[in-house]
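User: I've been going back and forth on whether these two constructs are worth ordering. Before I decide, could you fold them both?

Assistant: Sure. I'll take them in the order you sent them. The first construct and its structure tokens:
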Amino acid sequence: MSDSLFARAVRRLRRIISEPRPKKFPWSEAVEEALRQPTPLALLPAEDAELASLVRRACARERPDSRSLFFQDGAPLACWREEDVGLDGDWLTSPNYYPLYHALLQEAVGTRSNVRLLEIGVRTGYLGVVFAPATEGAAVYCGVDPNIYLHNGLRLADQALAAMRAMRPAFSYELIKGYSHDERIRRRLRSVEKFGYIHIDGDHSLEGKLADLELSRSLLKPGGLVLVDDYHHMPAVPEAIQRAFALGWYRRFAVGPTVRGLAVLS
């Protein structure tokens, strides 16, 4: 193993060891039912033709590079962390990560207005910054994060998203500090207008992913999309999706070729 690969492995191990474990919440009966699904589970359905076509069109679009997305006038937005460059396959600067997200959102949103996106797991606001220029009319970003993985993550997200709002007056945002598993936050999300797009990148345990998938189906507008990061990166992600499909929570499925794999559900 090269020094570079060894150093990355050490950094990753340190992150895993030091990462705060999510606060425990009682899981809903729907999640408990999903956990009781027999093994082996039924296979996932074949990729949906319409969703797969959406992914192909997004892949064919011309994409800005990451620095074009996250820099203004040569200076980085607050969300940009040099410490993130080079991590885990260099997801931050790869053309097949945030630039592909941008293309996919552009393709999905089209000319629609009043577009609403919920993100579970904000980090420093990278996806919110990508979402804003992918829309043409009124758009709302809502992010939920406990703000413990990075102690200043929501502060950096707020600064970056405020810069996007200054450039795009039709863009607005809200950041909610807390766990998506917290019933108080769930009630809050259920009390507002539903979302056309939901990005799940929070708790990566099987139970946590199931809880977010179960919540998202109740918050999604008809015809909306749920995007689940780390499909090829974390074993709990495809298993949670498999269990969700076994119970009929979602009907359509495709995979986008991002650095870590992106499941697209509807």
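The second construct, handled the same way:
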Amino acid sequence: MSNLDELISLDMLHLLGGYQRIYVGFSGGLDSTVLLHYLQAQPLLHEKLIAVHVHHGLQSQADSWLTHCQKICQDWGVACQTFQLALSATANIESIARQARYQVFASLMQPQVCMVTAHHQDDQAETLLLHLMRGTGVKGLSGIAACSPFHQGFLLRPLLDCSRTQLQAYADRFSLSWIEDSSNDNQQFSRNFIRHTLIPQLQQRWPAVSKTLARTTDICRSTQANLDDLAKIDCPLLLAERAVPHILPLHDICALSADRVHNVVRFWLERHAIRPPSFMVMQQIRQALIEAKSDANPCIWVDAQHFIRRYQDKLYLERQLQPTYESKLIVWDNFPEPCNLLKLGVLHADLATQGLRVLADDRVCIRYRQGGERFVWHQQTKSLKKLFQEWQVPPWLRDSIPLLFINDQLAMVVGYAISDVFFTKSEPSYHIDYQPA
């Protein structure tokens, strides 16, 4: 865009106008200062704006930066929220600070709310080069999206079509003042090296390199959209109405080529906001899990918090290791009020037209499997172990399922079945809902 009065497209301004509240990441630097100034000048947006300044506590000038941002917001009549963090400098502080900042942003999200950041065309080019050096795939080369879901709201970057030179010209025209962070000149950080050394050298030979690289991200984003569509075609059960999000059925993908299997797994993981693992880990998932014998129970970690296991013809995505479940009884003495299961989760009892029968004098207790439990279901008495096998409950999950006892008799396997002895189609009865911690 050459016109300084049109830094943000009319389509983007219209999109922003549809939100009830617009949070703007405001560090006080050139980019976010220009963004906030431009948005506050839009009559239909001004009252919706809330500037968000995150004080990382990493620079000696951080307090003065906070004061500067508060004064700017006061001068422009923009609401301002500040958050102070206590980070300590480490080798990976750039990444840690970014993660902490986005955790703050995420805490603000609600339906009909968006977060806006000042990423621009040069940032897009730097991101592409950074990802190229890391050997990322098409997803990484898609760069920064102009609009994407973000927790309960959306994350928008309306300046992606603008260069840093255009932002500088805008700031000069309106005599804006901004913060100069000296850490942005530290070329020990990879992004700063790309910005101050690599891109200037590329620009000497290809003056429009930032614009060209930004166009490349658009092509990669289109390619990624096609790969996502292919994953949906290859494994339609992923999007089936009764699909369980953390379970990947293998029936449709076992006969696919390795590349298409990797694509389905990548798509599945990204639906859980998990970055695609390395090519080596993808190979392990395919060889050790998908191509494993049906009775095998292997486990592959995909990052520091998540692992995948196989049970029969499905993959299960789990978070960390299961906690230890205590064997002692938990007396639900205030039934039907919520029952806290020793910080492992919460049980809720809601009145229903049919479900679990609980009488006024009944003693309701919860405990976890110890072995040997028997359960009356479909007019048969079976061992709980046998029923778990019939219900295809993975072995590593069985000890984490709450068992509800009434007067010392197993009345309900929470989330799976109610004993025939305690099931009723008349009122009052209860629906029991379990929310794991």
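Notes on the second construct follow. The radius of gyration is 27 Å. The chain has 13 helices and 22 strands.
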